[in-house]
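Allow me, if you will, to draw on your knowledge of protein folds for a short while. Thank you for your consideration; the sequence and its tokens are set out here:
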Amino acid sequence: MPFMVFIAIVAVVGITCCEGNSSVFCIESEKRALLNFKRDIIDPSNRLSSWSENGGDCCKWLGVYCNNLTGHVYKLDLRPPATPPVYASDAEFGVYWRSMLRGKINPSLLSLNRLVHLDLSHNNFGRTLIPGFLGSMESLTYLDLSGANFGGAIPHQLGNLSKLQHLDLGDNSNQLFEAKNLQWLSGFSSLEFLDLSGVDLSKATDWLEVTNRLPSLKELHLSACFLDNDPSPIMVNYSSLCVLDLSNNYLSPPVPAWIFSLGSLVSIDLSGNAFEGVIPSSFQNISSLKFLDLSSNSFNSSLPVWLFSLKHVEFLSLRGNFLQGKIPDSIGNLSSIRTLDLSGNMLEGPLPISLENLFTLRKLDLSNNNLDQEMSEILKVLFRCCADELESLNLANSNLSGHLTDQLGQFKKLSYISLSQNSISGFIPISIGNLSSLQYLDVSDNHLDGNLPENLENPMNLEYMNIAYNLLEGVVSEGFFSNLKRLRVFRASQNKLEFEPNSNWIPPFECQTIELSYWFLGPKFPTWIQFQKDLSTLDISSAGISDVVPSWFWNFTSKMVSLNISHNQLEGEIPLLPVHKLADLRSNRFSGPLPRILPDVATLFFTNNSFSGSLSSFLCDYRLGKPKLFLLQLESNLLSGEIPDCWKQWQGIRVLNMANNNLTGRIPDSLGYLGFMFLNLRNNKLSGEPPLTMADNNQLFMLDIGENQFTGNIPKWIGKSLPNLVILSLRSNSFNGHIPDELCELSSLQILDLGVNNLSGEIPKCFKNLSAMATKPNGTDDVIDYFVEGEFIRNELLVMKGRVREYSTILSLVTTMDLSSNNLIGNIPKEVTSLESLQSLNLSGNSLGGNIPDHIGSLKMLESLDVSRNNLSGSIPETLSNLNFLSHLNLSYNDLKGRIPSSTQLQSFDEFSYIGNQLCGPPINESCGIKPNVFNGRHGKEEREGWVEKHMIYFSVVMGFLVGFWGVVAPLLISKSWALAYYAKVEAIGGKFSSLRS
């Protein structure tokens, strides 16, 4: 018996890993096989450096596991290190990506004939085929190729691996081709785990039948497999199935009934489908259920009471549905719950007191609801249930108010807190320093005020802190950061905080992201930044810094992905800008030539500086690689000379703004080939005609070449070839000829500015086809909004309400037409009045004649109307008084006549709106004289009789005055003696009145 026990012990020990401990060396033929495998592998991070001819025992190599007795390799695990957290820096992700193995799989693995475990998951094999020879490795029981970027069809040879217990081919970025059937799985009698997530099974109508016949199957993962509802009406009896994942498919109501017959299920994931209506009560029949995920569907009822009778459920997610009403008191019955996610619904508060019964709760997510409750009340409830156990709390965007109390510091195990986008006010409690486990804190976009705590007394594990967009103020001390040694992301922009540490201060942390926009960090450039060696994102814009940027700053930014130092008073020249994606240097005092840039930079803001010289060295002499520049903002600098003709290698530019410089000459042909979305060359000294090559920019949304010296006719190709134009400004040039009818084809046009040119002829009647000016803008132009919100378009200058205005954030809501200061003739076409969404119409300074169209009142949205300095005649149309939004009106210097129509709107303008005409009535002082009216018919007689009655009293008064005047005063004027006698009599009467009064 002791001998048999000894043999058993040896057998158990024999299957253990021998890394570094085995006295048995690996077999030479298997070592050779591993080296041959490595030759076809690309290893950017040199992870397999221990795999070498002189590397000694291969059982000690990374990822290689050998049998302790025989020396045979039985396990090969070459997964890269764990994926970094979502808030990790680009540098950290770069390290992770470089750790991925690439290349191809060498057949030498067939020599490892005792290999039972092969894991190549989460590497990057560049969409190569899964090798068919893997089907010959018959000893395999575990095969994981998930997330390794394989492509092509699943090789049917894998069906030969009859001993497989674990098969994971999921998450290959949908690169696996469709599988028309799954019959190759039929022989897997021992298979316990199957993951085909991401494989297109839309034509594999046998998926349910085949997987149902796998007797040992415990876990089935078919996420994102393009599954529709039940493929065939079969009896389903997964005898061993515990985990079922059918998430992210096309499953629609009802929830498949066969699921509710699987009484052994422990985990069900049906998230990301199209289920709707009431959550089926049949889930309560699965008594062993511990994990239920119904998130990202369209369930739209109230929370069912029965749902909270699932006393064994540890994970429940209903995130991203349309559930309504209050959270019922019965939620307190979830006695085993550890993770509860009800986020992204339309639930209303307050939270029920019964929540205090959830003693096992570890993670709570109620974000993106309408709880409408004070934060202090929620903390009290949670404190009573799980102060010692709660690890994650997400209440972002939940309509919370009140203060953060010191009670927050008593949740000792909290590692994740998100309270952003609420209305929480008051101080950040100093007790937050007691949360030693806290790694993630987001209280951004609230109403928090006061100072930051001077000192967080205890060391913290905080890696991510976001306090941006609050009302915090005061001086930040160095002590606040003293115990934040692990801080990696610090976002605190849009507060009124001041931080000016000692010049020799060395931060205790090394961040990847620092965002301190609108802090006061100046006036000197903050020297402590130089100790942030891993910095990839820095925003110190609008920080009150007035200094020369030190040379060390440009030397240490080699890892910088995003840099924003705009809106300061920074000075100096920049030979090379070592930023990889986005650089924002706007509104500073940088001078000298434009700096050289790295080839992978995508977005550059150099606006409002003093960069000078020509563009040639920046564009034509570029030698650092193929540039990927997408957006280039050079507006408001001192750039001069001609635009060089060397844009060929800058084919990625889609947004270009070179306005407000001193550029001269013609627009070169090569510039027109770039395929712009936005082009602004306003206010330079460019001349000639726009090149025909610009007609190829059919995705152009904005073209502004105003305030230059362009000549010739307006090109017809603008209307023919640029169908997506929303903004067209040719203002203040020397264009002549007629306005081409082709412009009428620009159905998306919202802003048209042709003012201050030499245009002649009539206004095209086809302007009625400018449908974007006839339809009320709703601000849903995604392209315009995206570029405006990202400040890619800084502004657009428009003449509205009599003055030049800048429009930016509401640009997609503006509709305006400006044809002023040209030589246009003819009438104002009535067709213009069909543009009912027009907000500004300026036709001033032309030679237009005729009447103002009677239907001008149809322009209901009009805010500004200027038709001054023309030859318009007739009266002001009564319909003009219907324009309720009109806030600027100029009808001056025409030949208009008659009464100004009565309305609150028209009488609110001053007389200068009407000067230079023959008008009368308010607000002009001149009253309108009485004019004879022509009456006819019965109504005319009634009106005439009413007029006589109304005005007879005035006639009588006038006649009485005349008779009295000439009867009394005239004789006095004729006879001097009569006058003297008259005045003596009046004086005597006056004396009598005086004596009576005394």
The domain at 696-920 is CATH 3.80.10.10 (Leucine-rich repeat, LRR (right-handed beta-alpha superhelix)).
